[in-house]
């Protein structure tokens, strides 16, 4: 028996570099995407922003899942993500690294088994672990008092 799953979507060009994304087989609303000016018209996020949002969102959801797995009811997370872009040898822009900083609402001491949750949440993240095969991703988690409680170096 295979655990393989398929996710499908469809794109339709609207104008120039603007596309309508349909999430096939779901009731999700369509999403407009576009390239940034001057190439596009900023009618929606570009693919680089979507990739960054996917990594950041997946990490936030995975951390929430890991904390709840140990019977915590954590407050709302805040996340800041940055993608670093540089030109490769062929002078083409590429995402060369991603940094994601997650801020817990609660002090680490107020969370049950926080060490165990922090040790495993990144492994739950489908998107980040898939992206890491080609792009280094560094992750930091700070608790509600600002203390650094978890850090993963880029590329690990």
Structure, explained:
By secondary structure, the chain is α+β, with helices and mostly antiparallel strands. It folds into 2 domains: 1-45; 47-152, 2-Layer Sandwich (GMP Synthetase, Chain A, domain 3). The protein is built from 3 helices and 7 strands; from the N terminus they run βββαββααββ. It has helices at 47-69, 114-124, 126-131, and strands at 10-15, 18-22, 31-33, 78-87, 93-103, 137-142, 148-152. The protein has a 4-stranded mixed beta sheet with strand order 4-5-6-7, with helices on one face. Strands 1-2-3 form a 3-stranded antiparallel beta sheet, with no helix packed on it. Strand 1 and strand 2 form a beta hairpin. Helix 1 packs antiparallel against helix 2. The longest helix has 23 residues, at 47-69. The two termini are 31 Å apart.
Q: Which features does this protein show?
A:
156 residues, 4-stranded mixed sheet, 2 domains, 3-stranded antiparallel sheet
Series of H and E elements: EEEHEEHHEE
> What form results from the Cα inertia axes?
globular
Largest sheet: 4 strands, mixed
Determine the structural class based on helices, strands and strand pairing.
alpha+beta
CATH hierarchy: architecture of the largest domain: 2-Layer Sandwich
CATH fold field value of the largest domain: GMP Synthetase, Chain A, domain 3
Count of discrete alpha- or pi-helical segments spanning 4 or more residues: 3
Distance between the termini: 31 Å
Number of strands: 7
Mean pLDDT over the full residue set: 95
Radius of gyration: 18 Å
Helix content: 25-40%
- Which strand-content bin applies to the residues? 25-35%
Low-confidence sequence ranges: none
Number of domains: 2
Q: Output the CATH homologous superfamily of the largest domain.
A: K homology (KH) domain
What is the CATH class of the largest domain? Alpha Beta
- Describe the strand arrangement of the main beta sheet, using strand numbers: 4-5-6-7
């Amino acid at each position: 028996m295979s655990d393989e799953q398929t996710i499908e979507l469809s794109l339709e060009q609207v104008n120039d570099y603007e596309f309508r994304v349909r999430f096939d087989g779901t009731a999700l609303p369509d999403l407009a995407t576009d390239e940034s000016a001057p190439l596009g018209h900023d009618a929606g996020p570009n693919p680089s922003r979507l990739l960054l949002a996917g990594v950041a969102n997946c990490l936030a959801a995975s951390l929430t899942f890991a904390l709840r797995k140990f019977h915590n009811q954590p407050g709302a997370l805040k996340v800041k993500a940055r993608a670093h872009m540089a030109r490769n040898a062929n002078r083409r822009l590429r995402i060369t690294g991603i940094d994601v900083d997650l801020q817990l609402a609660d002090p680490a001491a107020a969370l049950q088994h926080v060490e165990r949750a922090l040790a495993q949440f990144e492994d739950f993240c489908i998107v980040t672990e898939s992206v890491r095969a080609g792009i280094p991703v560094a992750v930091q988690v700070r608790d509600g008092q600002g203390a650094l409680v978890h850090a993963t170096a880029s590329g690990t």
